[in-house]
User: Which sequence fits this backbone?
């Protein structure tokens, strides 16, 4: 059987190298952006180095208006990128503005260094955190969510 043409090599296409230990070397890293005045990072699981990046609309609604929340998992096939990668940060910023919603973007562990279901587990942990915020009535509530989000929507 003839080998496929080199242009169909997924490692070459994605500009990554599969190492002998099963990890990946990612040769192209998109710039990561820090949180801004309309976004913030909340540690999710420090042991796993996961976090949540929240985005609020820059078009501030009246104080009595509560917004829906959208949970967002960045692209990259579970092997590339971050919730802080420039294209995803910018997309979430635009979505928050255009949809008049709060965006919760999940920073999950990447494969193959963290084998599946690690990324799924991180997603479940983020959704569980959000559920706890919806039930929250004490001092551990995130102020952005408490003051801005309608959890029933």
Assistant:
């Amino acid at each position: 059987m003839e080998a496929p043409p080199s242009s169909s090599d997924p490692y070459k296409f994605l500009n990554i190298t599969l190492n002998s230990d099963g990890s990946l070397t990612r040769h192209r890293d998109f710039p990561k952006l820090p949180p801004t005045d309309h976004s913030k990072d909340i540690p999710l699981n420090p042991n796993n180095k996961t976090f949540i990046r929240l985005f609020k609309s820059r078009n501030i609604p009246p104080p009595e208006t509560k917004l829906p929340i959208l949970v967002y998992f960045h692209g990259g096939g579970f092997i590339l990128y971050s919730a802080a990668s420039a294209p995803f940060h910018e997309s979430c910023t635009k979505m928050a503005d255009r949809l008049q919603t709060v965006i919760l973007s999940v920073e999950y562990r990447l494969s193959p260094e963290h084998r599946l279901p690690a990324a799924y587990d991180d997603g479940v942990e983020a959704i569980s955190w959000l559920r706890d915020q919806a039930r929250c009535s004490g001092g551990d509530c995130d102020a952005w969510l408490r003051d801005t989000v309608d959890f029933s929507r």
User: Anything to note?
Assistant: Residues 30-148 form a domain with the Rossmann fold fold (CATH 3.40.50.1820). The chain has a mean pLDDT of 90.
